[in-house]
Specification:
The complex is a heterodimer. Chain A is an alpha/beta fold. In chain A, β1, α1 and β2 form a beta-alpha-beta unit. Chain A is globular, with a radius of gyration of 16 Å. Among the domains of chain B are: 124 residues, Beta-Lactamase; 189 residues, Heat Shock Protein 90, CATH 3.30.565.10. Chain B is 51% helix and 14% strand. Chain B has a 5-stranded mixed beta sheet with strand order 6-8-9-11-10, covered by helices on one side. The chains are: A alpha/beta, B alpha+beta. At the A-B interface, α1 of A face α5 and α6 of B.
Chain lengths: 142, 499
Amino acid sequence: MSEKVLLVDDEKDFLDIMSERMQARGMTVKTADSADKALAMLENESFDAIVMDFKMPGMDGIQALKNIKNQKPELQIILLTGYATVEKTVEAMKIGATDLLEKPADLEALAARIKQAKAEKMLLVEKQTEEKIKDILQRFGG
Amino acid sequence: MILLHRLKPAFWDLPDTAGSHSGLNLKRKWKLIVLVTAILSLSPLVIMTLVDFNLTRRTIETETNTGMLTSLNTIAAVMSASLAEKPPGTGAKTLWDTAFSHLNTGRNNDLFLMDNTGRLLTPSFYYETSGSRTILDPGLFTGSDGIVHIQASDGTPLLAGYARITGTPLMLVQLRQADWLRDLWFKPRLKLLWFLCASIGFILLSIMGMATFLVGRIHTSERQRIEALHHEEHANRLASIGRLASGVAHEINNPLDIINQKTGLIIDLLTLGKQDQPDQRLLPLAEDVLETVKRCGTITRQLLDFARHMEPSVEPVDMEEVISQVLALLETDARQRNITIQVPPVPEIPGFACDRSSLIQIFLNLAENAITAMEKNGILTIGVFNEKTGLVTITVSDTGKGISPEDLPKIFEPFYTSRTDRWGAGLGLAITYGLIREMGGDIRVKSTVGKGTSFTLTLPVKAPRPAAADGTLHLPGSEMTVPANPVDDDTWGDRYAKP
């Protein structure tokens, strides 16, 4: 089963090539050229992972990250940044980013992270479902 | 000459150009100080001596003249009385003649009798007894007595005292050489004059010594100020290079990523096999492009590391722990190159606090440089000493190829690199330098080609207040010894002297 990825970047060129390359690796890719559009897309669709640029005009990576995490906490978000400082990474991780990769990103590494993120998400969803079931069972059984 | 050379102040031979001493003309200053002080201190002395000279001369002159006149008058009175008793003509004249011939002792005591026509009645030292010829103009002697300046027939200036003998046309005259008086008061004064000259000499010497000391101090402090300015200039330059680097790196990273992805796509297209007969050279070429992009990425990352200027967080740091963390990162590389890492027991440093990540980065940069310098086989030594109060000394030394004396002054400049491979951007030591300066520390380097290099860091136990985050570097005081711009000042050369 292929991974479904949402790619968010303000650079159109980057989006096109990345999506083509990721698709060539068997992933299903949707793109958004701003954080607002990405948030709108998340309303109706579910993704295994979101790959998002840290620095974007309008809503930036950190803000978008906060909003997405509020909306769907189980979503796995991988941030791309031109320059990763310890502080930046720690801040992103605290908010709940799965990973922070430096540009120019190595696609193989990114693909590996996406695969991992999907697995983590599945685990998270499974856990959530389990808890839900437990909850339901408790409510009805007890 | 050697003594003169040693006495000469250090600033004497300095060129008084605007650049070297910001327009301070030290030589001129020295001369001015000496001149003004000398005038101020010597003029009262000289004036008082002159006044004293004049006063003494006048007093002695008056006193002698009065004395001479009094004795002349006394003799004249006695003669007048004696002549009145025994009129001239018989024995009396002979008696006076005899008396006067005895009195005529010499050039400074010429006593004789003269009548009102100018005829000499008794012999004189200066004027011969020549019968009725008038030799001395009697018109010179007015009044009953007095002192006048006259000239002898040979031109000698004379002092003539005279007194008329009452009741006769005779006049008693005493002649003295005019400079006889001067001899009287001038000779003892001459001794005083020597004393005066000696004291003037002493005063001048001490003024010059004082001026030399003062101007020397100005010279030293001015040099320190210029050194501090050099540091500041250098730090500012590093800061602006940092800002520029940061901007450039950010702007380059995005297009680099696009190149990266597009080349990746080319490789994808070639390898994922949609092309039937691709040119054999295409794939290696595209891979070369990727490799080059990676290199550019490394450089921009290093640039950003260099430009990074965040608020450093000062926290208590365990030096031993930091070193072990750094060693963990270096271990693999060192083992592969067969390099031994020696760390003598790290002393307890009570209250040591600094920006931890900066310290780690400093250690990493220095140690990585050392390992690179050794290539294969060697010993890397990291020593920590807490000997001086308030200071921590850290040494990082290697047994590598060393740095040549020409290159030593340049190693802290950005983009200076000794590495011939393509990975060194030459920012490592510039970053290290900036970090140490931010921590209020100091770094020195000693190196011998072929034997190895040793970096010595001095960090304050208590780090100074965090530096401003606006890109200006923290500037420690002028006692800092890290040369800011070693190239344009000769004195820096000494600091880089070979061990």
